[in-house]
Amino acid sequence: MTHANDLKIRLKIDLPCGVRLGYGKIDLLRAVANEASISAAARKMGMSYRRAWLLIDELNRSFASPVIETRIGGKAHGGASLTEMGERVIAIYLAAEQQARSAMTASLADLAACLAPEGGEGAPVVDASENDDL
To answer: CA 104, CA 83: separation in Å to the nearest integer?
Structure first.
């Protein structure tokens, strides 16, 4: 039997500037924080450096101050780090996600109760085109 805790909530927040903040961008920020590098974070997430850089640039432009700071390469080998704003954005997002999960506990339990048993088959698919009675 599936339980409410088995269901995942994926929060996406549409910012006024047209940017969508969701778990993917939050995961990217966390990967940059862990790897101290945009390119290493991109590799870890299976995306191109360019895609990661564009997402980070989009986020940096969306908030009052940058969420990621970069350092130019060379002898110091460059790198990237999460800023205080980046840490704050991650914390706010994770708190909002937890609040959403808490608020939806009863609904998730109801939805879980409606699911087919694990390993079993659900109701058969009915093709309305083959049945004139539908």
So the answer is: 32
How far apart are the two ends of the chain, measured CA to CA in Å?
31
Q: What is the pTM of this model?
A: 0.80
Shortest CA distance to 29 belongs to which of 44, 14, 7? 44
For 105, phi and psi rounded to 5 degrees?
-50, -50
Which residues are CB-contacts of 96 (< 8 A; sequence separation ≥ 6)?
A: 11, 13
CB 80 within 8 A of CB 70: yes
Whole-angstrom Cα distance, residue 67 to residue 64?
9
Which SS3 state, helix, strand or coil, does residue 127 take? coil
Give 3-state DSSP helix, strand, coil % of the chain, rounded to 5.
55, 10, 35
Domain 12-110 -> CATH class: mainly alpha
Digits of tens for pLDDT over the chain (134 positions)? 778 788 888 999 999 999 999 999 999 999 999 999 999 999 999 999 999 999 999 999 999 999 999 988 755 677 999 999 999 999 999 999 999 999 999 999 999 999 988 766 666 666 766 655 55
